[in-house]
Design a protein that fits this description.
alpha+beta; Hypothetical upf0131 protein ytfp; Nucleoside Triphosphate Pyrophosphohydrolase; 3 domains; eight-stranded mixed beta sheet; six-stranded mixed beta sheet; 9 helices; 17 strands; hydrolase; magnesium; ADP-ribose pyrophosphatase
Length: about 375
């Protein structure tokens, strides 16, 4: 792992998520705890905000915080890099109790919150996600400055959440029940590490004739899971579409790279697909949804991408205005919204102007379910 630009001399005191023994082993190796000693910080407590996976912080209090004291220079550098990625703040001096002796060290103030932090509850909810995220961060540390990864932390956490969600088993009544563990993964390297990520795999997989394939090299675009929702007002029989410039069509050479789509957004770590759908409708279109109807959950381009979509129809009351603006300036979103009648929406489907898979699937599903939705409105 590379050395962080943040240079720390002397021992480092770790607590909270950074002091979780499983995370320390992930960063320092299985023998990493041999480099640590138990220490205590008096008159402090560890607190956090509910729903934050890696964030906790110190605040004054009547408690006594137990943590780890790390003195090895290479271990300190690795942990300082991780703390910088997590935005844990500038190192602060503290006086610790170490086996009855007072020692001076540095620690990171972190992000205190309104709730006491408890390791067991935190590890049950966020432990696996944290280890997934730390694995990606560790793999990139030698090539990407910590400050750059800090800007991409939400994407890292979303990719980790998607990988965990993929563990959910779906039926294999027709397809092969062969599991991923039977694939012989020879190498796996990160080939591109920007806002998006690509991995190169060399592997062999079981064939349908019960033999193993020859070694093959494949590149995978590592994306997040996303939720997409087509807002529909069954009383007025209208839908809302969003329009925005899209890099995919532009990169393909499309003469008109502005695309009509459902409302869509990346699932943040800790969110359900339904929560993301409701949040994105507020952000992109200012809409409160009454109810969500699940359409499908599916891979988009399984030949080379991990991207996974959750499609919904969102029942709502659409406003009278037919054209509006939406999106977040902080995400450089320039979004125009269109509210159109059902017949015109289906005309887009028939003419080909509806030219992306999620919109086509949503409109075809609406065709099938429209009578039921209108009858119960």
């Amino acid at each position: 792992m590379g050395i962080a630009p943040l240079v720390i001399s002397g021992p480092l005191f770790l607590y909270g998520p950074l002091g979780w023994d499983c995370l320390l082993r992930a960063v320092l190796g299985q023998d990493g705890l041999d480099l640590t000693r138990t220490a205590y910080l008096s008159e402090h407590e560890v607190t956090s905000e509910v729903g934050t996976p890696l964030m906790a912080g110190l605040c004054p209090g009547a408690g006594r915080v137990e943590g780890w004291l790390v003195s090895d220079s290479e271990a300190v550098a690795r942990l300082a890099y991780l703390a910088e990625v997590f935005g844990m703040g500038a190192p602060t001096p503290v006086s610790l109790d170490l086996a009855g002796m007072t020692v001076e060290a540095l620690t990171f103030p972190g992000h205190p919150g309104s709730e006491p932090w408890h390791q067991g509850a935190w590890a049950n909810r966020w432990g696996d996600l944290s280890l997934m995220a730390v694995a990606e961060i560790s793999a990139l540390a030698a090539r990407v400055p910590a400050v750059d990864l800090a800007e991409r932390l939400q994407m890292i956490l979303s990719r980790a959440a998607a990988r965990l969600a993929a563990r959910s088993v779906v039926p294999s009544d027709l397809r092969s029940p062969t599991e991923a563990g039977q694939v012989d993964e020879i190498t796996c390297d990160i080939s591109h590490a920007g806002y998006f990520l690509s991995r190169n795999y060399t592997l062999r997989h079981p064939r349908f004739d019960a033999t193993m394939s020859a070694p093959m090299c494949r590149e995978v675009f590592v994306a997040t899971d996303a939720a997409l929702v087509l807002p529909y007002d069954p009383v007025t029989d209208r839908v809302l579409l969003v329009e925005q410039f899209r890099m995919g069509p532009y990169g393909r050479g499309d003469a008109r790279p502005w695309i009509l789509e459902p409302v869509a957004g990346r699932m943040d770590a800790g969110e359900t697909a339904e929560q993301t759908a409701r949040r994105e409708c507020l952000e992109e279109a200012g809409l409160e949804l009454r109810r969500l109807e699940a359409i499908s959950s599916h891979y988009c381009t399984p030949g080379y991408s991990t991207e996974y979509f959750h499609l919904f129809l969102g029942l709502c009351d659409l406003p009278e205005e037919t054209v509006g603006q939406g999106g977040l300036a902080s995400e450089q979103e320039d979004i125009r919204t269109h509210i159109i009648g059902y017949d015109r929406a289906i005309a887009l489907l028939n003419s080909g102007e509806a030219n992306n898979g999620p919109l086509i699937l949503c409109l075809m599903w609406l065709q099938r379910e429209r009578a039921r939705l209108r009858a119960s409105a």
